[in-house]
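Researcher: I'd like a structural prediction for the single chain below. Treat it as a standalone chain; there are no partners to consider.
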Amino acid sequence: MKYINDELWKKQISQKDWYLRLDPEFKRLENIQKDLSKEDEEELKEEIYSSIERDLGNGSIQPNKKYHDWDDERKTIDTIVIHHTSNDKSLTLSRLNAKHMFRLYRPFFTNPNEDNKAIKGEAISSGHFTNGVQIFYGYHWLVRLDGTPERLLTDNYVGWHAGNWDINTRSVAICIDGNFETSSPDIKVLKSISQLIKDNYKNVPIENILGHNEVNKNTVCPGNGFIGGWKLTLINLIKKNISSSSPFTYKQTSNS
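Model: Treating it as a single chain, here is the predicted structure.
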């Protein structure tokens, strides 16, 4: 089933304020979503994210080159927040980028707070770049199911991930590529995360390694089994004397 009004989308998506022009359409889709089965809801989301991904890729959506520098609010990193993508299938980086532009940046530009009201109507921007391309990832790291960690944002960037701006300004986000709402990650994934933390964030106190659901009570991310479950496994791995050499080479993103 086709959910998006293609004619309206194509007419508005190349405008710098496409997110405002299409806001009534997004609200219509949100209302439709309420009555859909889980399978149909995922189909609707897939249609939206694939459309954003396509139009970012072909240049129909042009990020603002004059961006507000929210990273000037970056503080010393004292917290690590663990996430999962909640996707059953592995995400490409271009899809994750599109998903985060739509879910994290679009709502903020549509309804900015008082301090940022001047951005409303401007082209969406993040001020974050890789290889000269503006990116919209909310996470600093993505850990694949084989344990391979991929760097998404450098640590000087504030990741828009926690739903709590104070936490965002002083944390890094490590996300597992998968859906762990009712299951636990494989031990090789947890070992990789523990090594990543030991290699890069050894000064972060153990008690400040938190799940998304511990800093934002409105989510189950990174899964119902994290608190009191696989979080303990992860913490114990970090505490152990793991080899100082990393089992995987850290990959830099190419936004693809």
